[in-house]
Structure formats: structure tokens, C-alpha cells
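This is your field. Please look over both lines of this record.
***
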Amino acid sequence: MEDMRLRKKNLILFPLGTIGRDMVYNLFASQLLTFVLFTRFLTAAQLTAITAIMVAARVFDALNDPIMGNIIERTRSRYGKFKPWLVIGILSTSVVVYLMFNTKLQGWGFVWFFGLMYFLYSITYTMHDISYWGMVPALSSDANARNQFTARATLFAGIGSTAASIFIPMLTAGSMTIGGSASVAYGRIALVVSILAPLFLAFTVFGARERRDDMQEAAPPISFKKIFRTIAANDQLLWVSLIFLIQQIGLNLVLGGLGSTYIYFEFGYAGGLYSLFTTVGMSATAFLMIFYPAISRHITRKKLMGLMMVISSVGYCLMFFPGLLLASGTAKFACIVVGYMLSNFGQYCYYLIMMISIINTVEYSEYKTGSRDEAIIASLRPFITKLSSALVVALTSFTYILLGVTHFTNQISTLEQSCTQGLISESEKLSQIGAVLQGVAPGQNLGLLFAMTIVPWLLMLLSYLLYKKHYKLDEAEYERICQEIQRRKDGAAV
């Protein structure tokens, strides 16, 4: 009875902690490149340098994740091994986020400052991200409970991310821009998010309770060999990591900057339109966030992936073909929005399945080697997320350079800065931006549309085929492994 009361408490307080974290993540992962493009005048060399910084920092961040996981594994404190890093990580991240979006630097000075802040963010965010998701296996080893914790945490993460996706574009572009210019708006939003993130995470730090059985054991040494051995010995972890990487690239291409740029170029510089696009697009995922545990009890993961592949395919077709054939207007916008909702529904279900699939390799590791290594295995999820985001940045910037996007964004950035300095009014700024966007060629918009529909669909298809063939830890096999582990423990106890 006590265990069930604790589980119910954890199911409320643990997920609440990630709302602010995911606002921060959305601001940095999905809005940062848009912030840079529309508030800074960039030469091709400067955009290339910023792209290189983002890719290098995210690769460094990804490689740092298993190391951080190993550090967490050996942490011994009266507060456990996760919570100290939650506190240190979220406070330092908030400082970095505020500084990044509140600088007035331009040109190469901004590029150097951007590089410093971006690498610092990579380090600080990793501290609390791995600690947070590393707690999931420590909250329960019951398969259904894990589905509940993962789905609930993902639900609240989605609330934070979706709120950021809705309000940030709305308040940084168009007539509702805070302070009349994008640079002022982003600075104030960063301040609010930097305060909210620690406040929300306090629910997890002070309220959630995890198992601390392994805290009685001696702290293992920080070892690159241990990290490599844990990952290399787990063939299922390796396969699902590759599959997750492929899927994450496709999932994040739209929100990584291509979506906002396409909407602004095709339908006008109004943040409300992009907010509507993301709101409707994310709305269907709320169903999965709430009902995925119930769905997973009736439909196996591989069958569910097949169904989601069909739904997403319909969505991508609904985005691409009307985008290709219809004239810009309400009907075209509606088709693209509904198409994105369907495609994102399927992609998001894949994300939940990948999350569970990675977590379940903890027991597979224990089954094969006798060691759970929760934090190291949990570090692979953010490792993959950040590595995929690096590739998304590279693909997005390549697309921008290939299609000549900066020719238009530089003009918009100049107008934004003129408005900030009081040289032109907000209405004059919006009028002149509208004139700039009239110069965008149809082929440029078509290129953006292709990159945000056909490419993600192909990557999703590839991830499905690989998962179906190579991931063996289905529901029945996972249950068999858990029973075998329990038999071993019972035998050792006797």
C-alpha cells in the first residue's frame, strides 16, 4: 500500500519538474537559430561559423553525456546520486540562457560570445537532463509503471515545450512582438524561462523519491573503459540508439527552423501563424501523452509503429502536395497544418516507443552482465537527442545557404535592429518586411517544403524498418528477462 501511495506521489511530482526544463530546451534547440537569423546581420562566413559552433558543441555535448552518466553513477550523497546534479545543472543553465539572449553584440564579437555560451549550455544542461531521465529506472522496475512515468513525464515535457512553441513565435514576430522588436522580446522571454525552470524542477528535487539501493555500494571509478564496455556489450542498446538517432533527425527538422522560415516566407511575417501551426501540430500528441500507457497494454510496440507509419505518411502527403500545387492562402495553410498534425502524431509515438525501448535495455544489461548501469544507459537518450540536433542544425543551415535564405533574413534583421534603435516604427518595420518577403522565389519555398516533408518521411521509414528487424526486446522478451533476473535474486538470497 505504501508503495502505491509513493508511486502516485511520484507520478505527480516527478513529471512536474520537467515543464520548465523543456521550455529552456525548446528556446535553445528550436528557437535559437531563428533568433540568430532574425536579430543579427550575418555574412555567409559568420553563419557558417555559427553552424560549425552548434554542430561541434552538440557533438561535444553528446560525447559528454556518457561521461556525465558515469559521474552521476559514482555520486554518493545524503540526497542520492541524481538530485545534487539536478540543482547544480538547472541553476547554471538558467544563467547561461539569460546571458545568451540578452547580449547586444553583433558581427564576429557575437559569434565568439555565441560559441562560449553554447559550449557552457552544453555542459550545464547535460547535468540536469541526464539526472532527470536517469531517475526513471530508479523510480520503478515494473514495466507498466515505467510506461506511466515515461508517458507522464513526456506529457509534462510536451506541455512546457508546446507552451514555448506557441508563445515564443507569437511574442517575437509580428504585431504582438514584446517591446516592438525581436531582440527585446527574446531577451525578456529568456528571463522568464530562466526563472521558471528552477521553480518547476523544485517539485522533483523536493517531492519525488527514487530507489537508493545502490547507494550502499562503493562508488565505481570514473572510467572510459566502463562507459564503452557498458554500451558496447548491450547490442540492443546499440541498435535502438541508431534507430532513435535516425528518427530524431526527421522529427526535429520542422521545429529546428525550417518550419518557421517556411511559414514566414510563404504566408507572411506573423508569429501567430507559426504558433497556430505548432499548436495544432502538437495538439494530437496530447492524446498519446495521456493514453500511451493504456494503448501499450493492448497493442505491441512494433504493430503500433506500423500504424503510426501509415498515419504520418498521410500527413506528409497532405503537407507536400497541397504545398506544391495550391496557391498561397487559407486552404494551403490549413492543409499544411493538418498534415503536420498527422505526421507529428506518428513521429511522437515513435519517440515514446524509443524512450521505453532505451530504458528497457537497463534490465537487458543486468541480464547479460549483472550490472544495471542506469545513468550510463539513460545518458544515451540525451546523447542521441543532441547528436541528432547537431545534424539537424547542419542540414538546416545547409538548406538555408543552398536556397539563399540569409539574403532575406539579413534584411529582416536590419529592419528589426532599426526598430529597436527607434529609427523606424513597428508598423513601418512590418510593412517593409512584407515587401522583403515578396521577393522570395517559389523555388525557394518549394525547397524548404521538400526539406521538411520528404526528408523526414524517408528517415521515419528507415527507422521503422530497422526497429522491426533488429530490436528484440519486445513485450514478451522483456517480461522473460525480468522474471529471470528475479529468479537469480531469489536464488542468491537463499
User: Anything to note?
Assistant: Residues 20 and 196 are 6 Å apart (CA to CA). Residues 107-139 form the longest helix (33 residues). The mean pLDDT is 84.
